[in-house]
Amino acid sequence: MEDVKNASIKKVDRICRAIMKLTDEDFTAVEEMAAEQQAYMHPLKYATAARINDLGDHNKRMAKGLRIMKKQIELSKARTK
Q1: What pTM, to 2 d.p., does this model score?
Q2: Long-range contacts formed by 38-42: CB under 8 A, 24+ apart
Q3: For the segment 1-52, what is each residue's pLDDT rounded down to a tens digit?
Q4: 10 CB-contact burial (10 Å; exposed 0-12 / middle 13-18 / buried 19+)
Q5: Kind plus residue range of the DSSP H or E element containing 21
Q6: Cβ proximity of 56 and 34 under 8 Å
Q7: Under DSSP, is residue 10 helix (H, G, I), strand (E, B) or coil?
């Protein structure tokens, strides 16, 4: 049981470290891509356009969530120092 707990903690640690490596340019690139996906239209391919619009919505929420997580990790590090 202890091995599973340690493995889980290591996974979370790797995710946090990866999030901390993200730059403002990374977030900007994803947000720009998401905006393009949200604006995509094709008069003859409604289902495809709807799927791409939904993907844009998802990517926008994901970028926002990752920004929030990065700020929280930074705040947590600042408090523990």
Answers
A1: 0.81
A2: none
A3: 788 888 999 999 999 999 999 999 999 999 999 999 999 999 999 999 999 9
A4: exposed
A5: none
A6: yes
A7: helix
